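your task:
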Amino acid sequence: MLQRTKTFFRTTLLGGVIVILPAIILIFAFKWLFGVVGNAIRPLTTLVVDYLPLPERYNEFIATVLVISVILMGCFLVGLFVKTRIGRWIYDGFERSLLSKAPGYKMIKETVNQFLGNKTSPFSSVALVQLFGNETLATAFITDRHADGTVTVFVPTGPNPTSGFIYHVDQKYVHPIAVSVEDAMRSVISCGAGSGTLIKRLKDIPADSKSKV
């Protein structure tokens, strides 16, 4: 009876932590992000506080929200302008003549486009790959396809999926599976735990279509 009571309280407490902890972490993350942005635009918020009659108790918070809103509106207007023919022409000329010559600009642009979803993610397709042409399988992400039938894959290392190896493999050894990137990443981070879903999805693929990418 005592053991059952202990188990009940332990599992209940653990369940409560699992529910509450992600929300707390999310709140602190937003608070940190707001603080970072607030510090970056502090010169502008100081001007707003000095020149606008804001409630003294919340003047800094209101000024920060106002400045962020103006910046977002500015981004919207710029995006709207760039969608026009003349706007696109001006932007392309400015980027070609000045921005593209700045060190690191292209890398930053690619990163931003990737982060905001304006470009197809190189990790959008999960596959199990026979790297050595035998029955050994590796969890991988298809990053490129080539006209000669070769497929480039990235094989992450666990538990850190940001590092790994790049392989160029014949497409007959690459087996795309209907598994989300998140599930594949969880398997990599946990050093293979939970890989049963990946193997099951591979077995569900008809034998005559396993080599089709």
